[in-house]
Amino acid sequence: MVSGTATDLRLGFAGTPDFAARVLDALLAAGHRPVSVYCQPDRPAGRGRRLQPPPVKTLAEDHGLTVRQPASLRQPAEAERLAEDRLDVLVVAAYGQILPESILSVPRYGCINVHASLLPRWRGAAPIERAILAGDRETGVCIMQMERGLDTGPVLRQRRCPIEPGMGAEALEAHLAELGAAALLDCLSQPPPWQATPQAEDGVTYATKLTRADAVVRWGGSADAIARQVSALARRMPPVACSGEVQIRLLAARAEDQPAGDLAPGTIIDAGGDGIRIACGSGVLRVEALQLNVGKGRPLRAADAVNGYAQLFAPGLRLRDGDQAR
Q: pTM for the full model?
């Protein structure tokens, strides 16, 4: 019989990136100590392509927790090893793999997932970025009982929050991780099985995995849409445009609510200390920070880019879409 106090449940944890590490940190601070922690294998990163541990591994090892990094959970041996932990529940947060039924059925009360959206909207891999790209004004986090389908399980807890204008994915992720951790701890404070609400059948959307196609700037679109593209993607795969043969990665930008006149989309209106203003299909985009694939390739304030590469940002010059690189 589970008593429901903060530390009675035998937990496992599965997660990989910063979002998951924030959730794990909150669990540890509340007195939970997972029996085992699963995360994705170390990956090469940086210019040297040296193997780097994921954030969850670093945090778990700092707390002396058992860390496992299987390439796949589909091998029978993984279910057998998990069964040895005698878990009451496995907490999952941005793990990076779909858990097979052989794993979902092992813990006494199954697996519960901290998902960064208001289900059934944005099931899948990239809910935070997709919500920003779509111009959603609200998002949130759900604690969901996991089942075989992709994020289809019933919801145990939910928290909502607005998406403020211009809010980037990094800031939104940090806020949702905080909300998710609070919702998870609220859930775990009650003895299982937990009351579950089936997801609505209407309003289902899928947050498909981000690809390079999502990062192509198309000047014929609206300035609002391109600004959201920058907010959503700048930290992971900055949106790309072109000036001549030079690629421009947009790191910070905002839309201005004013007409671009008769200028063709992509035309530079002016460039100076407060940014580079570019005509779009509707509205004007002000680029405030960027990165070029020339020189040292470092992030630059727009003013520094204009001073160092004036020929790329001359008023009247027309920038090309990101898929038109030569």
A: 0.93
